[in-house]
């Protein structure tokens, strides 16, 4: 009986030792370590014409949908990239950017696409590196009595109030692109062959201005180079979630030059070509 008991005890001890070895092996740094997945660079465009060039350059990609927003995941010459079609408008831009950052954890967000020109010295197909973006839909008016009419040229621009990491409120008249990303974009400016590349201020709002006096008023009072409908909302979300942001916009039409060109498709493709060069430069 004692011999059987000793044999049983030895078997139990052996099994416990084997289980312990197996557990330790599973926890071993040599077997548990997984290569860290490289964070992608995120590129946004509101419309198909602003993202199609990236899909062509990626070749193989996977479309993923979150809500009604489309994200295209793949590589650009070995560089991990996620392309986001934000859809048009500030609310769409904010919602899709929040999903983009939460789902894909990008190392940088490039909001790019087309814009209408505000500066008479910036022509159709020129590309603007938006060193800062401003919400040109955020204004208040002083009280005027019934019958006194409307005076939009006297509207007062409202700053945007954001909280910092410590919960303190700060007011922003505009939001900057990441300075390092701006420098990267400038470093490849000479590769752009469809016009000039300039630094400027991008205005965002849920409207499309074609009144020349109004466009000139924005340019003279706020230094805007062009306007579109997404950049400020993207910059605001990226700022709040602490992700580096860059604004790039290619002029598709202008009421304040004599270009007499309005070509959304070409501007979308040209801007995407430049953004691809910027993505490569960021990765390198």
Automatic annotation (TrEMBL):
<feature type="signal peptide">
    <location>
        <begin position="1"/>
        <end position="25"/>
    </location>
</feature>
<feature type="domain" description="Nucleoside phosphorylase">
    <location>
        <begin position="40"/>
        <end position="279"/>
    </location>
</feature>
<dbReference type="GO" id="GO:0005829">
    <property type="term" value="C:cytosol"/>
</dbReference>
<dbReference type="GO" id="GO:0008930">
    <property type="term" value="F:methylthioadenosine nucleosidase activity"/>
</dbReference>
<dbReference type="GO" id="GO:0008782">
    <property type="term" value="F:adenosylhomocysteine nucleosidase activity"/>
</dbReference>
<dbReference type="InterPro" id="IPR035994">
    <property type="entry name" value="Nucleoside_phosphorylase_sf"/>
</dbReference>
<dbReference type="GO" id="GO:0009116">
    <property type="term" value="P:nucleoside metabolic process"/>
</dbReference>
<dbReference type="GO" id="GO:0019284">
    <property type="term" value="P:L-methionine salvage from S-adenosylmethionine"/>
</dbReference>
<protein>
    <submittedName>
        <fullName>Putative 5-methylthioadenosine nucleosidase/S-adenosylhomocysteine nucleosidase</fullName>
        <ecNumber>3.2.2.9</ecNumber>
    </submittedName>
</protein>
<dbReference type="InterPro" id="IPR000845">
    <property type="entry name" value="Nucleoside_phosphorylase_d"/>
</dbReference>
<keyword id="KW-0732">Signal</keyword>
<keyword id="KW-0326">Glycosidase</keyword>
<keyword id="KW-0378">Hydrolase</keyword>
<dbReference type="Pfam" id="PF01048">
    <property type="entry name" value="PNP_UDP_1"/>
</dbReference>
